[in-house]
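User: Just a sanity check before I run the rest of the batch. Below are the structure tokens for the first item. I only need the designed sequence back.
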């Protein structure tokens, strides 16, 4: 019943797009999933430059929210409200004080009402990337970026960050983590599809050991995704088991990745993931952790010798996170985005037009989301490009607090 109501609401909404790519190129994409359990397979979205125009191919641009993903995202947010994590700044979530008592009074109606409210108040735009577009033909190779998403998200929850970077002339692989940290995912094994819901913690006493297991699994997923990309570049084509991708020739990417210029970017849990991944994988030349959530690594000993550009939002500055990053990194550059909140890096704030709703859900910055994302994109792009060009970018130590 609820799904039918949601479909009706979506039919009544006007067709909109997320903001267009920031760079000169348009963007195509293809999803790749290999067969096997999560520890033995890969699931990612591959963004790549194209000359085709998304305005003329709207029917091939994906709608942001699938039903399962939407409800996985809602389940994650409701779980946070029910059992507030110590690492999240609750001052960002002004609706928390209203929603927690409501959940206690009528828990049976809580999720349907929240879901219905989301359906009414949130847009469901198309992402301005073209499914199975033609790869740009007049460039020999493209630098490669592997992206790791945060807790409760998935391979396209950060589509603007990924397609903006891609539009500057990069190929971006956004990994979908299947360790239980995504809002919802799946895998295919033995001729059967298995669903992976978001794993919820029941008690704080085992949280570190559980999150540490997850982050180490995530590092393995980043490594397997990078293995797949390097194999694809060498002409060894994976068997893509996603039905909608059948008929797309992955050989178009053979020889197109500049494997000498490979970088890692990640947000929150993904920020911790890419820092740890760089410790065991020499293929990466630099790392950009955005608001890295370092709790899952607080007791794990390792060093990061590659250059790092850490970007934090003003309202997610957490001394323990930054202390751990400073402890492990040999070559660290740091910036803070003023007036910004943690969730601004996801696409979610771009779905809502009402500022009060965004603030209530922890998505409201003191300036526009678009302005924050533009500044973030400029920092990420300029820093990676400076590494490629061999030009040292100004080094700063903006921690967001006084030592």
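Assistant: Here's the designed sequence for the first item:
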């Amino acid at each position: 019943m609820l799904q039918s109501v949601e479909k009706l609401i979506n039919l009544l909404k006007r067709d909109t797009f997320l903001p267009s790519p920031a760079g000169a190129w348009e963007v195509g994409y293809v999803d790749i999933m290999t067969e096997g359990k999560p520890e033995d397979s890969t699931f990612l979205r591959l963004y790549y430059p194209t000359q085709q125009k998304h305005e003329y191919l709207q029917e091939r641009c994906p709608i942001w929210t699938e039903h399962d993903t939407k409800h996985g995202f809602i389940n994650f947010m409701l779980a946070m409200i029910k059992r507030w994590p110590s690492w999240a700044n609750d001052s960002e979530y002004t609706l928390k004080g209203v929603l927690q008592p409501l959940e206690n009074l009528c828990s049976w109606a809580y999720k349907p009402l929240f879901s219905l409210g989301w359906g009414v108040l949130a847009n469901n735009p198309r992402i301005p990337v073209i499914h199975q577009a033609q790869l740009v033909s007049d460039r020999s190779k493209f630098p490669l970026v592997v992206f790791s998403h945060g807790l409760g998200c998935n391979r396209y929850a950060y589509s603007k960050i990924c397609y903006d970077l891609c539009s500057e002339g990069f190929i971006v692989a956004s990994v979908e983590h299947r360790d239980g940290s995504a809002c919802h995912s799946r895998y295919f094994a033995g001729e059967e599809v298995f669903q992976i819901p978001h794993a919820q913690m029941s008690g704080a006493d085992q949280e570190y050991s559980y999150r540490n297991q997850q982050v180490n699994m995530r590092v393995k997923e980043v490594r397997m995704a990078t293995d797949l990309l390097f194999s694809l570049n060498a002409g060894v084509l994976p068997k893509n088991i996603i039905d909608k991708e059948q008929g797309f020739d992955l050989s178009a990417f053979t020889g197109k990745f500049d494997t000498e210029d490979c970088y890692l970017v990640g947000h929150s849990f993904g920020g911790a993931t890419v820092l740890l991944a760089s410790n065991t994988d020499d293929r990466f030349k630099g790392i950009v952790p955005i608001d890295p959530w370092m709790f899952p690594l607080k007791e794990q000993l390792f060093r990061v010798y590659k250059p790092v550009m850490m970007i934090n939002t003003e309202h997610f500055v957490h001394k323990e996170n930054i202390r751990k990053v400073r402890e492990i990194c040999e070559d660290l550059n740091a910036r803070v985005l003023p007036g910004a909140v943690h969730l601004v890096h996801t696409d979610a704030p771009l779905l809502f037009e009402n500022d009060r709703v965004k603030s209530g859900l922890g998505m409201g910055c003191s300036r526009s989301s678009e302005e924050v994302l533009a500044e973030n994109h400029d920092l990420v792009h300029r820093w990676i490009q400076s590494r490629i060009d061999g030009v040292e970018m100004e080094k700063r130590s903006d921690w967001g607090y006084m030592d």
